[in-house]
TrEMBL record:
<keyword id="KW-0564">Palmitate</keyword>
<dbReference type="InterPro" id="IPR010131">
    <property type="entry name" value="MdtP/NodT-like"/>
</dbReference>
<keyword id="KW-0472">Membrane</keyword>
<dbReference type="Pfam" id="PF02321">
    <property type="entry name" value="OEP"/>
</dbReference>
<keyword id="KW-0732">Signal</keyword>
<dbReference type="GO" id="GO:0005886">
    <property type="term" value="C:plasma membrane"/>
</dbReference>
<dbReference type="InterPro" id="IPR003423">
    <property type="entry name" value="OMP_efflux"/>
</dbReference>
<protein>
    <submittedName>
        <fullName>Efflux transporter outer membrane subunit</fullName>
    </submittedName>
</protein>
<dbReference type="GO" id="GO:0015562">
    <property type="term" value="F:efflux transmembrane transporter activity"/>
</dbReference>
<feature type="signal peptide">
    <location>
        <begin position="1"/>
        <end position="23"/>
    </location>
</feature>
<keyword id="KW-0449">Lipoprotein</keyword>
<keyword id="KW-0812">Transmembrane</keyword>
<keyword id="KW-1134">Transmembrane beta strand</keyword>
<comment type="similarity">
    <text>Belongs to the outer membrane factor (OMF) (TC 1.B.17) family.</text>
</comment>
């Protein structure tokens, strides 16, 4: 077989292998479904409370001070800020990968070879200059500038950099989402604390009322108009209410420390004015939710999922490019000599090199295929996560809007219940004094009144929490 035929076979084989290297598995394409209802309740009003900054949305100065402190000192938020820095450095690292690498290399070594070897015999007979033999042992000094560059033919490195950039932007959105949740959590905890303060005040007033009733029963017993059983029942009720006082005080301590943890400080008293809890100024008559489409821009978690989806698509392109041949170029220039006095002698000690290599995966590509299939699966997963995040955001807003409306109606009815039961306490006491009602009616009336007041405070707290949560659900607080 002649040389021409051999070269032809080699060329055909190389072409076939190149085509084999470029063959990639079929990708599963999936596009995110971004359709959402046109409105929440038929309204086309685009006014949205999410555009209001949290300093304006919350009016309580003590609450605003807590939020401001938490945004600076909360440990979880500060950890997230460091994750943003890590993601930013990852972008710089990926950008550097598709730029040429340039470095300086210097080295020195000393070699003694055997005289009765091919290299030693050759050195002994080779003169550096007429009449001068090669030194033995032979030193070697080198200084060289070297460059390496992978030519990004298939945009593998650039897409990797873009993917890292998307994840950096995603980490920023993650921080924004954490800010939104942190503000809402502090506000909810703060109103829970105010509710406990009001319940404690109710308990203390109820203890006073029950103590007065106990005194009346004791006097009636002395006058023979009441029994010892009635006295003991009233005493037990007083003891029960006093125990509630300490239960609430413990809950107050825990609520304060929850806020202290969010603010990033050790346990201490949380400044507040519990009397503002009953004000209706904060419960806005109309919460403007805007349009569902605005969630895509306002909700940081949706924006984060969007960036993750974009990054996952780029990861598929990066994994796909690994099937294709990669071109690398390397070059170097410098000086090399066996003696320092000859090191910079030009052109005798000058060295330079230029090389290029083309490499493609041909056999056993299982790792590349597995990486590609995993990247493709993660991209599909990111699509589902994006759709889930949008759906969850819409449902959260719808739930909170309905909750605000229903709690408003519930609060009105509970207020009437409290008024009725509060009046019944006086009525039952008067009837008891005139022996027209027994002591059990008085006790049950007091207990019902106490429970109704507790429930009214709970409803008020839920109202305030709903207004906080709708603000969070709409994506407010992070801007």
């Amino acid at each position: 077989m002649n040389k021409k035929r051999i070269y032809q076979y080699i060329g055909v084989t190389c072409i076939a292998l190149s085509f084999a290297a470029c063959k990639t598995p079929t990708a599963i394409e999936k596009t995110a479904n971004m359709e959402a209802p046109a409105s929440y309740n038929g309204s086309q009003d685009s006014t949205n409370v999410a555009s209001i900054e949290w300093e304006e949305y919350f009016s309580d100065p003590y609450l605003k001070a807590l939020i401001d402190s938490a945004l600076s000192n909360n440990q979880e938020l500060n950890i997230t800020l460091q994750e943003i820095n890590i993601a930013k450095n990852e972008v710089r690292a990926r950008k550097g990968e598709y730029l040429p690498f340039l470095g300086v290399r210097a080295g020195a070594d000393l070699e003694k070879v055997g005289r009765y070897t091919s290299q030693g015999a050759n050195d002994a007979t080779t003169d550096i200059k007429p009449g001068v033999e090669t030194p033995d042992p032979l030193g070697n000094l080198a200084i060289e500038a070297v460059a390496n560059w992978e030519v990004d033919i298939w945009k593998k490195l650039r897409n990797a950099k873009k993917s890292a950039l998307m994840r950096y932007l995603s980490s920023i959105e993650g921080k924004n989402f954490m800010v939104t949740n942190l503000i809402a959590e502090i506000a909810n905890s703060y109103y829970e604390l105010l509710a406990l303060d009001n319940q404690l005040a109710i308990v203390k007033r109820n203890i006073e009322i029950q103590s007065n009733a106990l005194g009346i029963v004791k006097m009636q017993k002395t006058a023979g108009r009441a029994t010892e059983l009635a006295v003991r029942k009233f005493e037990a009720e007083v003891f029960h209410t006093r125990s509630l006082q300490f239960d609430i005080q413990q809950k107050i301590v825990e609520a304060e420390n929850k806020i202290n943890f969010l603010v990033g400080r050790y346990p201490q008293h949380v400044e507040r004015d519990y009397e503002v809890f009953s004000n209706d100024d904060f419960i806005r008559e109309k919460i403007t939710s805007g349009l569902p489409a605005q969630l895509l821009a306002n909700r940081p978690d949706i924006r984060q999922a969007e960036k993750e989806l974009a990054a996952s698509k780029l990861d598929v392109q990066v994994a796909k490019a690994r099937f294709y041949p990669s071109l690398g170029i390397s070059a170097g220039v410098g000086y090399n000599a066996f003696n320092a006095k000859y090191l910079l002698t030009t052109p005798e000690s000058l060295i330079y090199s230029v090389a290029g290599d083309l490499m493609a995966p041909l056999i056993n590509r299982n790792e590349i295929k597995a990486t590609y299939n995993s990247a493709n699966a993660k991209q599909v997963q990111a699509v589902y996560n994006y759709e889930k995040t949008i759906l969850n955001a819409y449902i959260e807003v719808a739930n909170q809007m309905a909750k605000i409306d229903n709690l408003s109606k519930s609060y009105d009815l509970k207020s009437k219940e409290v008024d009725a039961l509060t009046s019944s306490i006086t009525i039952s006491n008067n009837l008891f004094k005139s022996a027209r009602a027994d002591y059990m009616e008085v006790l049950m009336t007091q207990r019902d009144a106490l429970e109704s007041k507790f429930e009214l405070v709970e409803t008020k707290m839920q109202q305030k929490n709903a207004v906080v949560n709708i603000y969070r659900a709409l994506g407010g607080g992070w801007k």
